[in-house]
Amino acid sequence: MLSARLDHLFQLGVLAVLVGVLSAALVMQFAFGELPCPLCLLERVAMFGVGFAVVQNFRNGFNERMTGLALIFAVVLLVIATRQSMLDIEPRPGHAYIGSAVLGLHMPVWAAVIGLVLILAHALKITLLGAAARDVAPLPLLAVAGRVLGLALLALCAINFIAVLLQCGAGECHTFGYRLLS
Known about the structure:
5 helices; about 0% strand; mainly alpha; about 180 residues; Bromodomain-like
């Protein structure tokens, strides 16, 4: 029973962190005018994938399939972020780092760190807690918090989708402005 409650808290923590990170990305985009590059947009998709897998646990009961799906999206995040970070190690002329550094690290490096932490955290959760939460419903307060964070994630996804449409239109994305607003 205790391990199930810890699993529920873990899932809620993952969801809260993802909502915070994705909110910060949108704040940087709109408040500071830092348009995401195409790889940054793919990193966001991977983070949304992890988040929606966690939301499914709160909606439909906790199971290993959703944990596996979250891990797949975390690996995708790590691969994309590592690729982008490696491309930016030696920026090509006219292709310098996009965006400012946060605590000394640029966003692709942060995305790689987040992907790695998600993978390690899920692996530790599986190792220490197993599938304990499968048959135990979350406490009502945790269930409500999961629903609220799930709605927040859905709202962030909708805002991100509209921003991508404005930035990219129906064509290839760029970082020079909002194509549909120019």
